Amino acid sequence: MAELRLRISMSLDGYVAGPNQSVSAPLGEGGEALHEWALALEAWRATHGRDGGEVNASTAVMEGSLEGIGATIMGRRMFGGGPGPWAEPAWEGWWGDEPPFGHPVFVLTHHARPPLVKGSTTFTFVTDGIEAALDAARAAAGGGDVALSGGADVVNQYLAAGLVDELLISVAPVLLGDGERLFANGAGAGTGLEQVEAVEAPGVTHLLYRARR
Amino acid sequence: MAELRLRISMSLDGYVAGPNQSVSAPLGEGGEALHEWALALEAWRATHGRDGGEVNASTAVMEGSLEGIGATIMGRRMFGGGPGPWAEPAWEGWWGDEPPFGHPVFVLTHHARPPLVKGSTTFTFVTDGIEAALDAARAAAGGGDVALSGGADVVNQYLAAGLVDELLISVAPVLLGDGERLFANGAGAGTGLEQVEAVEAPGVTHLLYRARR
Predict the structure, then answer these.
(1) Tell me: the pLDDT tens digits for B75-103?
(2) Chain B: residue nearest A13 by CA?
(3) CATH number, domain A4-84+99-211
(4) Are A11 and A34 spatial neighbours (Cβ–Cβ below 8 Å)?
């Protein structure tokens, strides 16, 4: 069966976003430091319409994390547009007219909304919970795996339910002190982990684990 | 000046001991999983009077963490013997007649007690706080550095005070879900970290950082 593969950047003290997230600071205070390693990569910039960038030890990790992925699940907070019912004109994501996904994306939300087509990416809004979103993503992935992207709340729900098969945690050398915590409230506790690989790269260390079944 | 070098094992979800620590379970429930990588090493076993063990990628990391160390600081909880005033006969540590330190050890406690000599290690009990313990350890280290060992409470106090120069975090592939958290309550937040090295080894990944001054 298609696997659910988490990939997320985390501070050394366990946060995936800083405190006081807002529309103008979607990663929270200091949270952009978690993603500096990615934004420096040519492999990231090319898929986000930007020139330049580096090739380094993170490149193969990023490419590997995309390999075989046929659909993505994210939370409403990561999709953006603020909390509550969708305003008009409805928020269409952070990614412009050609989002970098290029496959079906499922957004977990409490507020129904018709699917949104942007370039080669269709965003489908799922209001009946994480298992329904996973079923829909698996069906849409065309035999590929499903990427789990964030934010912390949605990821922790999947971890607590024991539904995550692979964890790629990119540890940034920063201590945020507060914010959105991965593994909050014991999410994932007791899951047996197999350490697959650790990759040291400029400004980040990538830790790859598989959940034992 | 002699540096203060933290070395500690941490679960992927940020705990350095499990919940419900007691005299019979000094590492808390599940906490022994944090140290399996170390107990498997010949380098660890030889200094703890045990035969056998492995040589692997952790060996050089452990040897490096001991290199140049002239004194150690630990908390009362790591030294052991339960909370509160010292009972009679007073607890003499977990390490038998020849503790593996072989240099002066400073134990932070609220309860005064005369120094304790065990083999080539002298334990000095410090009741006037982390800065006094660091001053004493530096003076006793004979030009060497000072190791900071745990537990979480003492380490977090040093992190919060900005006194830690080097952080060696050995990340075990386990999710404890609860227990004693490193970096709790924002300890160390805002400290600039330089990622020095990441070492993948059997059952653990060692992350080495330096604090920027």
Answers:
(1) 999 999 888 999 889 999 999 999 999 99
(2) B183
(3) 3.40.430.10
(4) yes
Using CA atoms, how far apart are residues A184 and B177, in angstroms rounded to an integer?
Answer: 8
Quick one: three-class SS letters along chain A? CCCEEEEEEEECCCEEECCCCCCCCCCCCCHHHHCHHHHCEHHHHHHCCCCCCECCHHHHHHHHHHCCEEEEEEEHHHHCCCCCCCCCCCCCCCCCCCCCCCCCEEEECCCCCCCEEECCEEEEEECCCHHHHHHHHHHHCCCCEEEECCCHHHHHHHHHCCCCCEEEEEEECCCCCCCEECCHHHCCCCCCEEEEEEEEECCEEEEEEEECC
B182 with A13: Cβ contact below 8 A? yes
Q: Could B177 and A193 be called an inter-chain contact, meaning their C-beta atoms sit closer than 8 Å? A: no
What pLDDT does B1 receive?
83
Query: Cβ separation of A193 and B175 shorter than 8 Å?
Result: yes
Contacts of A183 in chain B (CB under 8 A): 12-14, 175, 177
**CATH architecture assignment, domain B4-16+27-211:** 3-Layer(aba) Sandwich (3.40)
Q: Which of A9, A10, A13 to probe the B interface (max B CBs under 10 A)? A: A13
- Smallest Cα distance from B100 to chain A, Å: 29
Which candidate in A200, A204, A208, A209 is best for mutational testing of the B interface (most B CBs within 10 A)? A200
The ipTM of this complex is 0.95
pTM, entire model: 0.96
**Domain extents for chain B?**
4-16+27-211
Query: Residue A120 in contact with residue A98, Cβ under 8 Å?
Result: yes
